[in-house]
Amino acid sequence: MEAVLEVTHRGPVAVVTLCRGKVNAIDVELAQELAATLERLEDDDAVRAVVLTGAGKVFSAGVDLRRVVDDDPAYAGRLIDGLRSVLETVFRFPKPTVAAVNGAAVAGGCIVACACDRRLMAAGARIGATELVVGVPFPVSAIEILRHACGARTEDVVFTARLLDADEAASVGMVHEVLEPPVLLERATAVAATLGQVPLAAYRLAKEQLRRPAVERMHHDAGTVDEAAASEWGAAATRQRLRDQLERLGR
Questions:
Q1: 5-182 has which fold?
Q2: What whole-number percentage of the chain has pLDDT above 90?
């Protein structure tokens, strides 16, 4: 089976690189592998922090829509379950996490980046929660992660469903720093290493406190919101709409 993630170590920082296909699109297996990898890194005492980035020129183009339309309708339910698990795993990871957004971070790719504690982005890259453009709903974890990152700007980000350049992403809270591409990973690693110097117990408790409202809403609403989202993703009309869009894009 071809690897969908690569893990390298830079001192106490583990760099996790998405490397699935040309655009690091997220499917059930990638979601499961990322969640499992983070669980292993949580238990590794030598790892003090994690950097998450993408291979090539794309961070992640989001959910693999071709897989959604080509697989059976039940796949949508498995996908929503996988997204819920991995997004919550990233969001609640007890050690510092830094996203090095090296290129386009679209829809699910945007949410994964926003789940990290700090987000650094390459100048010239674009990021956005574009789900509504293709007419698919957000799982509850995605909205709560965006709300946590963007605060009062969340509705603007969600309803306009636009891709933001690095400067606008910084203005709405998605991104903390904008850097030239050649220095992005080096800077992200340095930020992660600095955060990793904080005693882990103190960092973990602060993170739990800061994110508790979002996590509680995730758990309260998952049964209804995610069930509705899975139903809509798997609906024949949705799958046909996605199929038509992929054909227009030549994918």
A1: 2-enoyl-CoA Hydratase; Chain A, domain 1 (3.90.226)
A2: 85
